[in-house]
Amino acid sequence: MLVTGALGEGRVRCPWHGACFNVETGDIEDFPGMDSLPCYRVTVGEAGDVKVRAKRTELATNKRTRVMAKRVAQDERTYVVIGGGPSGATCAETLRQEGFTGRVVMINKEPALPYDRVKVSKTMDMNLEKCLLRTQQFYDDNDIEVMLGTAVTKLDGATRELTLDNGYKIRYDKAYIATGSNPRRPPIEGADLGNVCVLRTAADAKQVNDQLGPEKRIVILGTSFIGLEAAAYCVNKVAKVTVIGRGA
């Protein structure tokens, strides 16, 4: 894919979603994306022959994770990440990649580890395990605490203490709020009925997918790429899909 990307100033940028990589180190420098690219040692012989040295594991995966710092017991600092989407997951990783050795806690209201939310509107029958950005083992190996199915109910900036919905309190030195946005239901009669769904989480996608059937008629409010991707997914699974937008 990067063969058709934009190359300049020592960086190559993916033409699809804009992920940017350093051409010398392979490190990812702009998102979306989580992994860096592997770098191979290249030598050119006197006869012009080119030799490339690479690890078999990197050739198999074609990706590389940057070196992470480990937690040091003497470092009493705590960095709390509120939100378990791609932004929160990236923040937690970046802290370790940049050498932070204190406690890192990521709090996610959803019951799942951070996953590729882009796939929610593309494949509503998504296999969540295959869409995870990282495994639990990854977070364990890099000393990143993950609290799932947990919401922050109060954040006191003066005392630097936050309260969770289970009553647990955490003192922090710094907090990163990455809760994202919520889909807005239109203020019209019937918007709260059981067959009216919003689409943001994997649970939302499952709710929509469970209601599809060859006799169903689907109406989608919104003509953004999310609405149109949802329409494309549903069109062969229902009797009719209608997309409604405000624009002409």
Automatic annotation (TrEMBL):
Residues 1-44 form the Rieske domain. Its cofactor is FAD. PROSITE patterns: RIESKE. The keyword Secreted does not apply. It comes from the Eukaryota. Keywords: 2Fe-2S, FAD, Flavoprotein, Iron, Iron-sulfur, Metal-binding, Oxidoreductase. InterPro entries: FAD-oxidoreductase/Apoptosis, FAD/NAD-bd_sf, FAD/NAD-binding_dom, Rieske_2Fe-2S, Rieske_2Fe-2S_sf. The keyword Iron applies. GO terms for molecular function: 2 iron, 2 sulfur cluster binding; metal ion binding; oxidoreductase activity, acting on NAD(P)H. GO terms for cellular component: cytoplasm. PANTHER family: APOPTOSIS-INDUCING FACTOR 1, RIESKE DOMAIN-CONTAINING PROTEIN-RELATED. This is Rieske domain-containing protein. It comes from Anopheles maculatus.
